[in-house]
């Protein structure tokens, strides 16, 4: 077998997560907002580390259309112009998500809702078609607690359009932006709990149904909001699931990774070590189990994480879930990401082997 010999990394490479990821054929990036671009140290970190970015708010339906009428894409256009100018890929997050429906549709009739949802998808994809690496076409479709046999969430999209809403969305996006990777994005598939295993099974069944129906889903997005105190270091159930996803013809994108330290001991060094270890082990499991297109964290710096409101620490201490600290300095998590992203290319179970007889 001819060993895969990696050229020694140039210094500039070893200081950039995006360049290190590129050595393994991956993109690395983070969610970004227009506000981030006004922070000198965050702007520097994004330009140094990111080869792909995702608007944290600026492409969500409730932000694009807070009131009826013409959509407001100015925030998204600002980020798109920045990404294009910096040679950074851009993701469209997210077209149909039950948590980003504009308030003025709360009491809409089914017909009005469908018309508005289809108009939003068409206007958004058309506006950025050709410039998007990928679209999170549907976000968080599963919610087994709603008791449906198919595990689908009883969202306004399901109520108005039935289970076929996923196929409608993906086919419309594929028609309008045929060059983009179309992603079905989901949370809670990464954990070791019985509930997560049930959700993985429901996701496999959903993708099988949609593939049979001809729905153009290209990748499964794992949000990967992890818990440093709960994520197993070895995870055979997740590995098996990811191999099944690959066997169904999909690739994987890690779309929103962060590692909550809300339940860790207060000591900063202990928290940073546990968080870093979780990043490293989770990425090792994913990258050795399937073809992965991109790894993204939900934010870059602890200075701004959604977890501050979503999952605060009981003791009120500032959270430390991301690769950079509040001043933009690299933490052990940054180095753990660097190590996992630049590990020698693994034998992809589906790629032809380079080994010679
Ligand atoms: C979050 C943002 O980061 C928050 O600032 C906002 O208040 C709520 O949405 N899964 C998703 C993301 O798909 O869009 C969410 O982003 C985090 C959970």
Q: What does this entry look like structurally?
A:
With 357 residues, the protein is α/β, with parallel strands linked by helices. It has helices at 11-14, 17-22, 40-49, 61-64, 74-86, 110-128, 156-161, 165-176, 194-212, 236-247, 268-289, 307-310, 332-341, and strands at residues 27-32, 52-55, 89-97, 134-139, 181-186, 219-222, 225-227, 251-260, 292-297. Helix 11 (268-289) links the parallel strand 8 (251-260) and strand 9 (292-297). Helix 6 (110-128) packs parallel to helix 8 (165-176), helix 9 runs parallel beside helix 10 and helix 11 (268-289) packs parallel to helix 13. The protein has an 8-stranded parallel β-barrel with strand order 1-2-3-4-5-6-8-9, surrounded by 5 helices. Bound molecules: (3S,4R)-3-hydroxy-2-oxopiperidin-4-yl beta-D-xylopyranoside. Residues 56, 139, 223, 256, 306 line the site of (3S,4R)-3-hydroxy-2-oxopiperidin-4-yl beta-D-xylopyranoside.
SSE topology:
Layout: H1 11-14, H2 17-22, E1 27-32, H3 40-49, E2 52-55, H4 61-64, H5 74-86, E3 89-97, H6 110-128, E4 134-139, H7 156-161, H8 165-176, E5 181-186, H9 194-212, E6 219-222, E7 225-227, H10 236-247, E8 251-260, H11 268-289, E9 292-297, H12 307-310, H13 332-341
Parallel strand pairs: 1-2, 1-9, 2-3, 3-4, 4-5, 5-6, 6-8, 7-8, 8-9
Bound molecules: (3S,4R)-3-hydroxy-2-oxopiperidin-4-yl beta-D-xylopyranoside.
(3S,4R)-3-hydroxy-2-oxopiperidin-4-yl beta-D-xylopyranoside (XIL) binds at residues 56, 139, 223, 256, 306.
